[in-house]
Design brief:
EC number: 5.1.99.6
GO molecular function, one term: nucleotide binding
Helix content: 25-40%
Cofactor: K(+)
Distance between the termini: 39 Å
Bound molecules: ligand NPW, flavin mononucleotide, pyridoxal-5'-phosphate, potassium ion
Strand content: 15-25%
Radius of gyration: 27 Å
Structural class: alpha/beta
Binding site for K(+): 129, 193, 238
Domain YjeF N-terminal: 78-303
Amino acid sequence: MICSLLSQAPLSLAYYKSFPSTYKIKPSAPLNRFSPGFLSPISTPAIRVFCSKPDEVGSMASSVQNQGSISYLTQRKAAEVDEILMGPLGFSVDQLMELAGLSVATSIAEVYKPNEYNRVLAICGPGNNGGDGLVAARHLYHFGYKPFVCYPKRTQKPLYSGLVTQLETLPIPFLSVDELPVDLSKDFDILIDAMFGFSFHGAPRPPFDDLIQKLVNLHNYEQVQQKSPVIVSVDIPSGWHVEKGDGGGEGIKPDMLKFSGPHHFLGGRFVPPTIAEKYKLCLPQYSGTSMCVRIGKPPQVDISALRENYISPEFLEEQVEADPLDQFHKWFDDAVAAGLKEPNAMALTTTGKDGKPSSRMVLLKGVDKGGFVWYTNYESRKARELFENPHAALLFYWDGLNRQVRVEGSVQKVSDEESEQYFHSRPRGSQIGAIVSKQSAVVPGRMYCTSNTKN
Ligand SMILES: NC(=O)C1=CN([C@@H]2O[C@H](COP(=O)(O)OP(=O)(O)OC[C@H]3O[C@@H](n4cnc5c(N)ncnc54)[C@H](OP(=O)(O)O)[C@@H]3O)[C@@H](O)[C@H]2O)[C@@H](O)CC1
Ligand SMILES: Cc1cc2nc3c(=O)[nH]c(=O)nc-3n(C[C@H](O)[C@H](O)[C@H](O)COP(=O)(O)O)c2cc1C
Ligand SMILES: Cc1ncc(COP(=O)(O)O)c(C=O)c1O
Ligand SMILES: [K+]
């Protein structure tokens, strides 16, 4: 259920009614230009990443360069990078493994939600790739998944026995190879292939030969089954030649970390500039606080199949504040406490005299009994429409909380003093931007700017 608060004069709560109707909006203007007020949409060119050699596989330290193509590190160079990181650059293997395992877990959580893909089997090999799998299993447990671990060749080093102890105390069950079902598709939703990374060589030895075969076989089961588990390969698909890839085409076909497939993530947001320079790594832009970044083709999605299962605590009419503004404050505080990004972002819809509505995002800068306050340019399109028709609707949507607030009402300008005060509270760059950019106007090019407007 989405909880929905509709504030009008008087403010009231709105309930959903469900009836069979669909609408289609035909954009009346071509959707081919950036909206002028969007937060620096093109200040830094996005790195376009695509794979120039789809049959090849790079290590986790693969780099992005040559205007958008991926370049690869050889097996020797990847190992060399490890040695430098863990030698003169002072990193410990524990540290790098923790970062790698956390990146794997967060990438999985980004794509496969725990309410749909809950049962995870991490198949871990004897080396550091296996260690990445052990760390990922621990994080996934805390993210709400139910992980199992198959770790048939345990390495007797304190790092690994520590990781095993951490998992056992959660508790995460360890399964022997014999305990695994022949067909993994029924018991697991996600299979983490953390058997081998860049130090793999030759043909896989037992018991990993059979384990790899179990993952390969999944594609045969897939034909008779509707849903089969997804395979997430850490660093490289185990069994693939580290530099030549899946030569015979008979290896594991992972769903994540697969060049031709939909989900390929690159970690490495810790690589110091000295390494990046030495190996000519042109690292991608990581966003926010993410340790890894999606690269390659964006996933193809069936829009009609996108669906969330909204699970919210019960919300009864008697729990609703008598004054919708009080309810708004409560929910706003919840949105802030939940750590949502820009909880004050709201869609503002205006309609000019032509009766055609237009919406855009603005930031709420204050709210009290007098109304909801935002700031904008008095010469913008929305300002013109509000001049023609001083009525507007606001919409807040707090993803994660499954709540929206709808506000409808009449609009007035705040006082000049209040406007001035807000303007002077803004960072210098925003002030300059507001002065030189003519909001809502098409900019003929990057070389042009005007100086006749002011927010
Ligand atoms: N770069 C980074 O930033 C970071 C890298 N990290 C991770 O480390 C990974 C590299 O780790 P790694 O060097 O320990 O090697 P890995 O591939 O796990 O396996 C070696 C083991 O497999 C065995 N083995 C080999 N071939 C075999 C075969 N045919 N059949 C059977 N066994 C075989 C081999 O045994 P051996 O042949 O030596 O007897 C040895 O025991 C890397 O891919 C990444 O995931 C992160 O943890 C930290 C940050
Ligand atoms: C998250 C977000 C917040 C925004 N906040 C504001 C704002 O507070 N004031 C504003 O004038 N524009 C803001 N913008 C830009 C507007 O969405 C819009 O592009 C711009 O105001 C021009 O709109 P108009 O041509 O319909 O008048 C924001 C954009 C985004 C994506
Ligand atoms: C055009 C414009 N004006 C105003 C704002 C509000 O920004 P600030 O919080 O810097 O005042 C934004 C934010 O995105 C904006 O894009
Ligand atoms: K692997």
